[in-house]
Amino acid sequence: MRVLWLRGDLRSYDHAGWSELGIGDAAVFVLDPGLARHASPIRRAWLAGALGEIDDWTDHRLSLLHARHGDELAAIFAAWGATEVLTHQGVAPGIRRRIDATRRSLEARGIALRVVDSAYAVAPGSLTRPEGGAWRVFGAFWRQWRPAVHGLGPFEATAPPSLAVTERHFEPADLRPPDQPLLTPQRTALERLERFVDSRLAHYAADRDRPAVAATSELSPALHIGAIHPRTILAALGDLDRADRFVRELAWREFYAHALWHHPDLVDLELDPTLRQIAWDEGDEADARFRAWCDGRTGFPIVDAGMRELAATGWLHNRVRMIVASLLVKDLHLDWRRGAAWFEATLADADIASNRGNWQWVAGTGLDAAPYFRVFNPTLQGKKFDPDGHYVRRWVPELRACPTSLIHEPWRWVGRENAGYPLPIVDHDRERREALARYDAARASA
Ligand code: FAD
């Protein structure tokens, strides 16, 4: 008997694993009790939806287990009579450890574990620099990656396999918190892809940095859970040169995954060794600044709009992610790991490789990073990317009556006090100088 062990590949089409299953095989999703409690409500809703779609497709023959990875899981598969377990590649260090532990326990029982695919167009680790390791610069990665995805097509559609019913410790619906909507990730992903190709792609390059404009694909939560594969997306784009700006974004996702594959410690450790001793603020006053950032009460409208959008929807526009992250690190002097953890607790697409890679990019400590001395000015960023203030007005109702000319500097608006919107919690110019001094001190001590 073969067992398809589903993890972050929760879809029924364009899937390497399903095409290998025959009558009497099994497909399983496993919740490790030690991990389950960490998933945020929005991510549980995506998971519940994706499992529900697969469960329907398999006529409710999907096995759903509560089990610890390693020996406990291997013992269950052995009791089913498994001869081979198929799964897809794990990239984050914790997941790799759990797969390796399970592989060892399976092998001890004479059961093979075979990796049949990855969540990427090009499997992390399969492209390597001549001198070994991961690329530090995106351009060099892109030059290898782009030809590698040329002509890549989806796997053939598979009929639902006739699975043996094995065990069911929970139902997909049990995972959805009551206050979260019922989601259909696969269907949603395919609808979003079609909408993107039909109406957004042509304007993507021009509008992708404007948070008030619906210009991006919004595919990230579905990509994260594997409700859609990048192969499917690339195939739908047709001429990749015409879609170059968008294809590059997909490549950034793969760039960070390749980097994490080679440098598992980038999750917590600055890749740039000269910037490992930056003095971050801690204590009550720093905690208060962190809370103001999380709650969208910093007094910088574009930042507050973003943090409120994140709290309300579990999604945030890329440009705004960069702006809020920069404020946390460079203006509030708070550790980038703290911001990354908050994103992981709130984002529907929270992904270790993309999240930690991007936070290090913003902090100037990672791969192809923004030079550390380039500090985003939240007011200028707001004026440039939300010139009409539509995005701010959508998420910060206190500023709806603020004139457009002042919407990104409401401290100059006479009506501000009545509107109940806070003053900026820091002075950007002063904190910018402070950040540079701290980065310089870290470099000097390295
Ligand atoms: P589109 O513009 O439509 O792009 C298509 C796809 O390309 C995205 O779905 C995503 O998979 C990929 N992509 C786009 N931009 C990036 C990027 N900068 N880095 C890596 N992949 C990219 N993305 C996540 O998926 N998970 C995260 O946890 C995450 N954390 C981030 C943290 C910070 C501080 C920053 C600055 C960015 C982060 N991103 C993360 C990247 C990016 O913001 C989101 O992927 C993007 O906003 C998702 O929206 P979309 O699907 O409409 O993107």
What does the model show?
- The protein is mostly helical and 446 residues long.
- The protein is built from 18 helices and 5 strands.
- It has helices spanning 33-36, 41-57, 71-80, 93-108, 138-148, 185-207, 220-225, 230-237, 244-262, 284-295, 301-313, 318-331, 336-346, 352-363, 378-385, 390-395, 416-419, 428-445; strands spanning 2-6, 26-31, 63-66, 84-88, 112-117.
- A 5-stranded parallel β-sheet has the order 3-2-1-4-5.
- Helix 4 (93-108) links the parallel strand 4 (84-88) and strand 5 (112-117).
- Helix 11 (301-313) crosses helix 12 (318-331).
- The longest helix is centred in the middle third of the chain and has 23 residues, at 185-207.
- The N and C termini lie far apart (56 Å).
- The model has no long low-confidence stretch (mean pLDDT 95).
- The chain binds flavin-adenine dinucleotide.
- Residues 208, 216-220, 223-224, 249-250, 252-253, 256, 317-318, 321-322, 325, 343, 347, 349-351, 354-355, 358-359, 362 line the site of flavin-adenine dinucleotide (FAD).
- FAD binds at residues 204, 216-220, 246, 249-256, 349-351.
- GO terms for molecular function: deoxyribodipyrimidine photo-lyase activity; DNA binding; FAD binding.
